[in-house]
Backbone:
């Protein structure tokens, strides 16, 4: 009799516990099963989409970096040499020029073209091309290789001049030099492919055309 009562009590406890477990399971879910499944699918798609997007951006960046042609290479190599001579000419003004305007112009030319030489050298290195050796101050005659370049004798003449004579020679030579750079810049704008190079070419055309006008006015006053 006692054993029968004990069995009945245990069965009742088990039934109560089972019912409680069912109630807790039902309360623990605020969303239908279909919504849980949908949420899992949405969160699982994001990393794959992000990975594809990152891969596309990186590939596009590589394509942009590689997007240059032979005109870009020629422009960079030649303009580096062209700028170096302009910087050399500008460096002579401080100790030889009489005009403050000439000295100021020379300093502006030097300040603008030195960083551009560095930029173009970086492009050539990134493209696996050789950066031209610096021949400035060595007496090499490059007047026939690029438009507007001074000959070795032109440079010697400028170095020997001083005062007002230097000012006139410097302005006349730099006008010719700038005209050559403008022609080179227009060629790059027309034939080049690499964005930074064509933008630099456009800047050269704009800035040096304005300086040509300024120098011609200065020559007219002297």
Residues:
């Amino acid at each position: 009799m006692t054993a029968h009562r004990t069995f009945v009590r245990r069965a009742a406890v088990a039934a109560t516990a089972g019912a409680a477990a069912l109630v807790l399971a039902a309360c623990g879910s605020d969303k239908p099963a279909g919504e849980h499944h949908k949420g899992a699918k949405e969160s699982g798609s994001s990393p794959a989409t992000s990975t594809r997007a990152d891969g596309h951006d990186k590939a596009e960046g590589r394509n942009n970096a590689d997007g240059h042609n032979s005109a870009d290479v020629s422009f960079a190599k030649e303009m580096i040499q062209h700028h170096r001579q302009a910087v050399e000419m500008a460096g002579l003004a401080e100790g030889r020029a009489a005009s403050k305007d000439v000295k100021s112009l020379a300093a502006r030319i030097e300040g603008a073209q030195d960083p551009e030489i560095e930029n173009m050298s970086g492009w050539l290195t990134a493209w696996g091309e050789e950066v031209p050796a610096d021949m400035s101050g060595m007496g090499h005659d490059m007047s026939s290789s690029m438009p507007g370049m001074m000959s070795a004798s032109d440079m010697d003449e400028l170095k020997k001049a001083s005062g007002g004579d230097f000012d006139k020679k410097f302005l006349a030579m730099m006008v010719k030099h700038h005209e050559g750079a403008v022609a080179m810049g227009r060629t790059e704008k027309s034939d080049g492919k690499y964005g930074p190079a064509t933008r630099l070419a456009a800047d050269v055309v704009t800035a040096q055309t304005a300086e040509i006008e300024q120098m011609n006015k200065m020559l007219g006053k002297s």
In short: The longest helix spans residues 33-65.
